[in-house]
Amino acid sequence: MRPSRATRTIGQWVAWLKSQNCTPSVTPAEVGVCSMCLGPTPIGPQGTHYARCFACNNGRYSTVLDGFVPICYSVNEGLEGAIWRAKNDDLNGWLQLPLASLLWTFLNNHLECIENAYGGKFDIGVTVPSSKERNGVNHLDALLSRIEKWPINWKQGVLVKNRNEPAAERRQRIVTDLFTADQSVNGKRVLLLDDTFTSGGSMASAAYALHEAGATSVVGIAFGRQLNASREEARELISELPQRPLDLDTCPVHDLSDIDLFFMRG
Ligand SMILES: [Zn+2]
Ligand SMILES: [Zn+2]
């Protein structure tokens, strides 16, 4: 049963999303997940997990992304399903409300931690355009317009997607001509929002375009770090997700120094 959309507050939408058990928490510095993208890493010849996954370890993503911060994990039919319906199904456009509320709450709690961890304040936030745009509107820009006041300055329409390309073709690689960014990002520190991070190729290709247009720093953020159940190294983590309810007090860049700063500010 969906809540009455007109009367819900941001906090109530987040509570509703939590009750759907589709937003398992991420944990900072967890053994067995990549220190860059928080995806699961395989076990190496020494019998321990690699600290970074293949795509992050060989330098590809770190050449264009200073960091990546997922709000939670996502699996098929979980958060991914909600995002898909919010994006593609007119009758479920209301799902933008809980998703916007989730992002708003996360940024209010952790934007400063992310800025502290990755070199300072962001000048602007921009969205990764999706393959499917309805009426010329990027669905993430539409989602952001559901809430009036954000702790970051979102700028719409900065990135343009040059063509639709099946995700499989860009798996784990940067496609240098997939996106174009306008010059408004020149000299700017950018927070880059996508809905999910699966192979990372889309976000990394968007980050590449932002740097081409002169952005000095790009940090990615996504609602969900998508986990693929067909990947052997993901199975253990996926099996633990039901015991990991959304925890919006913790973020992947939280560490003890962040907590000290928090108390000093308080
Ligand atoms: Zn990685
Ligand atoms: Zn934090």
TrEMBL record:
Protein family membership: Belongs to the ComF/GntX family.
Domain Phosphoribosyltransferase intervals: 134-223
Organism: Streptomyces pseudovenezuelae
Top-rank taxon: Bacteria
Gene3D superfamilies: 3.40.50.2020
InterPro entries given in the database record: ComF/GntX_DNA_util-trans, PRTase-like, PRTase_dom
Alphabetized Pfam families for the sequence: Pribosyltran
Designated name of the protein: Amidophosphoribosyltransferase
PANTHER family xref list: DNA UTILIZATION PROTEIN YHGH (PTHR47505:SF1)
Signal sequence annotation: none
